[in-house]
Description:
Elements: E1 3-7, E2 10-13, E3 18-25, E4 33-39, E5 46-51, E6 58-60, E7 68-73, E8 78-83, E9 92-99, H1 105-111, E10 117-118, E11 122-127
Parallel strand pairs: 2-11
Antiparallel strand pairs: 1-3, 3-8, 4-5, 4-9, 5-6, 7-8, 9-10, 9-11
Amino acid sequence: xxxxxxxxxxxxxxxxxxxxxxxxxxxxxxxxxxxxxxxxxxxxxxxxxxxxxxxxxxxxxxxxxxxxxxxxxxxxxxxxxxxxxxxxxxxxxxxxxxxxxxxxxxxxxxxxxxxxxxxxxxxxxxxx
Length: 128
């Protein structure tokens, strides 16, 4: 059974930092693209950052470029999202997703297929 478990969310002041973690199991992690998505109340789900299974294959939404960094540790079946200089508009539920089909980080982040496997999400709240 595919499982994705997010952790690391919480309340942070604007300008602060958070590190989100996604622990995966139930599939061949090395082959999968993994992404972070977010959904704020009343807004559509959007791709934040994704990482593919080849070196350097990453995607960042324009709104987070230069502030967020995604990384993966295949030995630990985990993906991380380092969030720096957070802003109130970063407030959302952050969800981890896995795409087991051949893809790229860019495609995963932009297309947001409902065929992805999804975690339950972790709340990030940024106060001003």
